[in-house]
Amino acid sequence: MVEFESALKSLTAEKVDFVIVGGLAISAHSTGYITTDLDFCYLRTKENLKKIVAALEPFKPRFRNFPKDLPFIWDERTLQSGTNFTLETKIGAIDMLGEVAGVGSFEEVKAESVSAKLYGCDVLLLSLEGLIKAKKAAGRTKDLLILPELEALQELLSETEE
Amino acid sequence: MEKLSKERLEKIRQLILNPRPGSKVAEAKEFGIDLTLTFGQLRKTPQERVEHQQSAMRSLDEFKRQTKELRKRING
Predict the structure, then answer these.
(1) A38, A24 in Cβ contact below 8 A?
(2) Which of A27-41, A141-155, B51-65 has the highest mean pLDDT?
(3) Which pTM value belongs to this model?
(4) Rounded (5°) CA angle A146-A149-A150
(5) Which of A56, A103, A118, A142 is deepest in the core (most CB within 10 A)?
(6) Which residues contact A161 (CB under 8 A, 6 or more apart)?
(7) B58 to A1: CB separation less than 8 angstroms, yes or no
(8) Any CB–CB contact under 8 A between B70 and chain A?
(9) Angle at A74 between CA A6 and CA A57, to 5 degrees
(10) Is the alpha carbon torsion for A142, A153, B59, A92 positive or negative?
(11) CA-to-CA distance for B11 and A74, rounded, in angstroms?
């Protein structure tokens, strides 16, 4: 289980440019979905990578399923070597995505985000519309199972918009 | 993203109780989703929704831990 509060406080304290895109975003939008990790999409500039390194450093991140006996260096160079990273940390599993299938690049994900306050932090969450696109694109059984609820929720909110 | 007003929540409640045929709400109900649970979440702030999720995760972790312990005790 991931400690969302610690992760979000650290990411916002370092002013990381990120958008929450996974199960946490789905929960914040009102479904009963339970997730065990934090997924976020991030801007891939050198400056932002530096902020991510600083924000997650206290939680001792390593690649998930990376052999324990192999040395692992958590720095900007490591993050420059890929786009998507699945990490295990002292506070739980964190997945970093450079882009989101069905939505697009970080800029496109950000354009489809909504703001919210979580644990006293101002954060961006992928919108319901964005989550529906992402789940459709992912197309795994677990993604497709949540779709009817997300689509119903979207309909309820759009039909009652004030 | 803010807490929804009482008036809006009431409109949503009505749409859940009396879904329009062919609507996504009707489809979700047919699929087996209990939208009254979704409605329960809609009444909360985003923070409360996430806290509810964390609490469910903690319970699940505790359940898994206790099941593991029990299995160990039974199997020696």
Answers:
(1) yes
(2) A141-155
(3) 0.90
(4) 80
(5) A103
(6) none
(7) yes
(8) no
(9) 25
(10) positive
(11) 50
Dist. CA B12–CA A155, nearest whole Å: 10
Average of per-residue pLDDT values in chain A: 93
Decide if A148 and B31 are in contact by the 8 Å CB cutoff: yes
Q: What is the sign, positive or negative, of the torsion defined by CA atoms of A25, A28, A29, A31?
A: positive
Residue type for position A146: I
Virtual CA dihedral for B7, B8, B9, B10, nearest 10 degrees? Answer: 50
Contact call for residues A61 and A74 (beta carbons, < 8 A): yes
- Chain A window 96-135: which residues touch B at a Cβ cutoff of 8 Å? 114-119, 125
User: B19-42: per-residue pLDDT in tens?
Assistant: 999 999 999 999 999 999 899 999
- Token pair, residue A82, equals 């890929």
> Amino acid identity, residue A3?
E
For the cut 90, the answer to whether the pLDDT of residue A2 exceeds it is no
What residues contact residue B23 under an 8 Å CB cut-off, 6+ apart?
Answer: A152, A155, B15
In the three-class reduction of DSSP (H, G, I as helix; E, B as strand; rest coil), residue A139 is classed as coil
Residue at A40: amino acid letter? F
Longest pairwise C-alpha distance within chain B? 58
As given in the structure block, the two tokens for residue A21 are: 């895109």
Q: Among all chains, which residue has been given the structure tokens 């009254």?
A: B36
